[in-house]
Amino acid sequence: MKTHSVISLSLLVASQAGFAADWSTTQLHLNHGEFKNLFSQQKANATIYSLQHASGYKYGDNFFFIDFTKDDRDDGFQDGDYYGEWYSSFSLGKITGKEFSFGAIRDVSLVAGVNVAGDAKVMKYLPGIKLHWDVPGFNFLTTSFTSYIDDSSGVAKQGAPMETDSWMFDMAWGYPFTIGEQRFHFTGHMEFIDGRRNELGGEVKSWILAQPILVWDLGYALGNQPNNLMLGVEWQYWRHKLGTNTSESVPQLHLEWMF
User: What is the value of pTM for the model shown?
Assistant: First the structure.
């Protein structure tokens, strides 16, 4: 699928999801940092343009993002590629009308996810369970345990090698706070995906990916509406990036526009 078609489809889905939702938020993100080519180990400055959407409805919530990455080195790696994830959660409490809260857990959901990569022709399915935590000060705090099921095209169709199935643990959070009259937001996610093997017999290592983001509410500081324009830093730490021996730690300039 062409990149502009993927972006157009995502915008359409976001608008339709927002129309039907009890609440919704859609954001455009811009990240800029220096990333490493997994194959040549050379570094290149890359800009990542992201569309991100979250919404809630009567029986659960939806979340998706799509990234388009372009770097300044013409080496066949991140020269104009897209990657996206979609997750739909179905609240057991809302669906059954019964209480699924206990201790610090506010609700339990079934979750169904899909991960898609463009040039690599990767497709993963992630069915599982999500816990919604009730922690003072947090807008949200969730932990998910899912399968990581491969349905990729593989080497035969000029894609990345197919892999055996695995599992994932993910934690996502959002924590707003103020310092004086200034507003900030600490958000992000962290995932662990267990190791597996690819169709060529090679090892795909377990990885840890953490992407914490600290932003300053620039729009509010300039006298406009809060939670509209954010400026800050995203830090990407990836141990065994994409299951390889390469690990990296990359600070990135981060800009958000919410609408």
Answer: 0.88
